[in-house]
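User: For my dataset I need records formatted as: sequence, then structure tokens, nothing else. Please produce one.
Assistant:
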Amino acid sequence: MNKKTIITALLAVLTLTAFSQCTSTTAESTPGWLWEISGNGLQQKSYLFGTCHGGGHSFTYEDVFGFRGVDDALSNVKTVYFETNLTVGKRLAAKEMSIAEWLGCPNDATKDDLMPEGVTYESFFDSVAQYQEVHQFLTQKMGDAEYWKKTPLYWFNHLVGYNFAKGYYGIQSVEGVLSTEAAKRGIEISQLEDVEQHAQWFGRPRTQRQRPNIPLKTQAWMLYIGIHNDDDQAPEPVRQLAAAYLKDDTCSVHDWLESHAEYNIPIPNGSLPTLAMNQAWCPVIEQNIAKGACMVAVGARHLLGNDGLIAMLRKKGYTVEPVK
């Protein structure tokens, strides 16, 4: 199994960072994360479900199926579509391997991934302790003693495999819990795009999509958060984000974001590639819901706002309402 079949378990900080203000249009009376799609010629109802990829929390069955309507909705669909592939390779069983060895990653760095001459990783962090955490992670877990030759964004992109590996060790994302239960019920599991396509949104090499131009210090902050995204060392504000998500309340997440602007990490043009991703996914979602009842489970950020999937589907004539 190669890296093309590994989940792109992106950070919660990038999953929940573009909510519009809590208005009657985007968050009708705390609607929660499960939305029902009907109308526009559909023969059966389908669902949108907003997920959270981390935030320092290992999600349980009780967490995910405690959200109103999720259990019933899953029982009424034939397929669950995630952002990308959730398959894990058997080689992960060799726990003594470094993540880099398990991924089988070649040195795929391009000239854009190389650090500027004279710039050091130490200069990116506010404390020696933070730098040491990153240093130890990249040398020991990612297996590269010369990690400093490449930008923090390069290593941030390679957290794809590492964050999924955490799921194997018992730290679960919402997607992990949902896919496990779907498999138990004999429900088909699919994806909106393959892993290579998905990774390209976030600046991986060989992409024709927009490549991020993020300041190096911001890249280092993203990397630091990413390293601790799903463990007990996650920064407290990131853990608060998971707690807000667990309230099943879009407004509580919005309030968190309003008070933690430092976590709203901009990519080109001052925003994350949410709009472009949603525009690419929307036709795929339309095709899938036309085939039969399904659940589309993507990062909660993709659902809400004027550029969200809810608004896009409504503009196309579908009725999209929160599950009561």
